[in-house]
Design goal:
It is built from eight helices and no strands. Helix 1 (about 5-15) runs antiparallel to helix 4 (about 55-85) and helix 3 (about 40-55) runs antiparallel to helix 4. The protein has helices at about 5-15, 25-35, 40-55, 55-85, 90-105, 110-120, 125-135, 140. About 80% of the residues lie in helices and about 0% in strands. It has one domain (about 5-140). The protein is elongated. The chain is mostly helical and about 140 residues long.
Length: about 140
């Protein structure tokens, strides 16, 4: 994930959840989100656990944000499925590899970004063009 995407996600979480937190909770929440050493699974688990421990309002806001992320993932998956017949075998293979990287929750967000950059950096120009034609989130990944 690019650092700009990470910042967008962080902003969405902070903007949505912060209103339900006191100053001490905000600091703890930011400490979790800013911890670049956490794997994606650890971060998800810690954010969820933290939000649930802060009460019903915060837990509800967490579910709201989580729902937005899930909706975006579904939107991207639908976009790929809709355009699948137009994609070359190379691009389909590239997307499968990118999906595997994205779904690997044992790596950090920085490691995911590095792996995606390596994968896409070595991709043929024709595959990159096909991905760009799909729009977001692929245009962001190819920056």
């Amino acid at each position: 994930m690019s650092s700009s995407k990470r910042e967008e996600m962080k902003k969405l979480f902070v903007d949505t959840i912060a209103s339900t937190l006191n100053d001490e909770q905000k600091k703890k929440f930011n400490d979790i989100i800013d911890n670049k050493d956490l794997t994606k699974q650890q971060m998800r688990d810690q954010i969820k656990s933290f939000c649930e421990s802060c009460g019903d309002a915060t837990a509800a806001k967490f579910q709201e944000v989580h729902g937005k992320f899930e909706a975006k993932k579904a939107e991207y998956a639908a976009k790929i499925k809709e355009n699948e017949g137009k994609l070359s075998a190379e691009t389909k293979a590239l997307l499968a590899q990118a999906k595997t990287i994205h779904e690997d929750l044992t790596i950090t967000h920085a490691q995911e970004h590095e792996k995606m950059q390596a994968l896409l950096g070595g991709a043929p120009a024709s595959a990159k063009d096909e991905l760009k034609a799909l729009g977001e989130p692929f245009t962001d990944l190819l920056k």
